[in-house]
Every structure is written in C-alpha cells, then in structure tokens.
Amino acid sequence: MRSVALSLLVLLGAAQASILLPYHMPDELIQLMAFREQPQNAAISVCNDIQFNYCQTHFNQFFGMDDSISWRNGSYIFNTVQNYLMMNVTELVKVCNTRTQFYQCLGSSYYPCMNLYTLLNKPQPDFSNTFDYVRTFRGLEWMCVGGFSEVVAQWSCLATFPTTKAYQNCIGNFNQTVSAANFCPAVAQTGVCLNDAYNAACGPAGAGYFGCENFRITFDNSCWGLRCMVDSQ
Ligand SMILES: *[C@@H]1O[C@H](CO)[C@@H](O)[C@H](O)[C@H]1NC(C)=O
Ligand SMILES: *[C@@H]1O[C@H](CO)[C@@H](O)[C@H](O)[C@H]1NC(C)=O
Ligand SMILES: *[C@@H]1O[C@H](CO)[C@@H](O)[C@H](O)[C@H]1NC(C)=O
Fold first, then answer.
1. Angstrom distance (rounded) from CA 149 to CA 125
2. Which of 42, 94, 95, 102 has an alpha carbon within 20 to 30 A of 78's alpha carbon?
3. Which segment of the chain is annotated as a signal peptide (predicted)?
C-alpha cells in the first residue's frame, strides 16, 4: 500500500508561484477520499446537472474558457484559475467575486456538486481531473472567505511560498507518509508542517493558519474534525 502511494504521488514539475497548492494525488487515494465523502443523506444532497452546467458556463466566461469546459477538465480549470490568481490582487478579488456568483448560482447544489463521491459516480470520470476540479473550488472557498483578508494582505509572500524548499519538504514528507492506512494523520501532520513553514516565511500574524487551511480544506470532507491551529498572540 505504502509503496503504491509512494510511487504515484509526485510533486508537479518545477516549482512555480501558486496560491492553489501544487501537489499530485494518486488515484487510489482520490478514490479513498471519494468513499469518505459519500453524502450521509443522498436525498437532500443532489447535484442538479442542468444547473451545474449552466453555472459552470457562467464561471468559465470570466476566464475566457469555452462553454464545454466542465469538471471533466479539472486540471485545465485548476491551471487557468491559478494563472488569474497569480496576476495581481485585483485579479484575485475578481476571481473571488466570480467564485461567489458560482456558489450562489448553485445554491443547495453547491456542496453535492463539489464532491468527489458525486462526481466520480458519473460515467467514466478521470480521477486526477476530478480531484483538481474539486480542490480548485475548495481552495477558492478558503482564500475568498475565511482566508481572504490574509491573502490580500500577504498575496506576494503566500503565492511565492510554494516555490521554497520549506514547502517542498512539507509536501515531500506528505508524499512519503500518506497512504490509505495513514491518511488523515498524514494530512494533519502536513498541515502542522505548512503552518510552521508559512509562519517562518511570511510572518506569524496569520500566514501559518492560512497555509495550513489552504491545504487542509481539500480534505475537509474526508478527514472530519481536523483543524488548523490559530496562533495565539
Ligand atoms: C475537456 O474534457 C473532455 C472530456 O474528457 C475532452 O474531450 C476535452 O478535450 C477537454 N477539453 C480541453 C480543452 O481540455
Ligand atoms: C493586474 O493584472 C492584469 C492582467 O495582467 C492587468 O491587466 C491589470 O492592469 C493589473 N492590475 C494591477 C492593479 O496591477
Ligand atoms: C514523491 O515520491 C515519488 C516516488 O518515490 C518521487 O519520485 C517524488 O520525487 C516524490 N516527490 C517529492 C516531492 O518528494
């Protein structure tokens, strides 16, 4: 099990500035996450496909993405959104406004649609595209809501951080420790590692909490109850 996770979880290419965190998850662990995200009450958690497509098309327009682009093109959406987030704070705020419109457009379909279990149960899903799709919107949810004032204040440092050795050490350690048998503990440990590393790089006022949550939020539905520590000061 461990060797499978080890051999398939690879850090994406050369380090680039990025607010959506660059790392790769093996299909086995995406499947495990999906299983753990299975909605408790299927009757009240429905992702309405017509509404989903409509809202996605509207979201795509801001980025100049074709109407046909959907959750099936998750890696393309991840990279496109990332490019806008990296332009400047003005563009980041516009992305957040676009994300708010998407969230409001989907209404009660939002969480059922942004769910690995729901999406991977559609015909012929591609695991890594689906994972990239879901983590794009989870990352936006964090930086545009709870982490918004921090990301606006420290945009440059937070965006540059994933290019550092400190980030690569935390993610490399995640790479080596995460497995089906050690999933949430590895997520928690990586959150602590990122907390300390972001604090060291960008100052303790809120950077550590931002960095930990920015990673943890992707696992919010598969590792219930994990929390990042707010620095007391
Ligand atoms: C989007 O995904 C669909 C289905 O996998 C694929 O046929 C299409 O080429 C993709 N579009 C882009 C721009 O990647
Ligand atoms: C932000 O980046 C966009 C795209 O490069 C550019 O058009 C815009 O002028 C920039 N805004 C600021 C305030 O730098
Ligand atoms: C993750 O593990 C794979 C396989 O051992 C390795 O090729 C890759 O370089 C590792 N990535 C990091 C960031 O350690």
1. 36
2. 42
3. 1-17
The C-alpha atoms of residue 95 and residue 109 are separated, in whole angstroms, by 20
Q: Cα-atom radius of gyration of the chain, to the nearest Å? A: 17
Q: List, for residues 125-161, the tens digit of each pLDDT value.
A: 999 999 999 999 999 999 999 999 999 999 999 999 9
* 76 pocket-lining for ligand 1 (C-beta < 6 Å): yes
Q: Whose CA is nearest to atom 9 of ligand 1?
A: 73
Closest protein CA for atom 6 of ligand 3: 10
In the chain, where the domains are located: 2-219
Q: How far is the CA of 70 from the centre of ligand 1 (A)?
A: 8
- Give the tens place of pLDDT for each residue, 53-88: 999 999 999 999 999 999 999 999 999 999 999 999
Map tokens 């109850």 to a residue.
225
Is the overall model pTM greater than 0.85, yes or no? yes
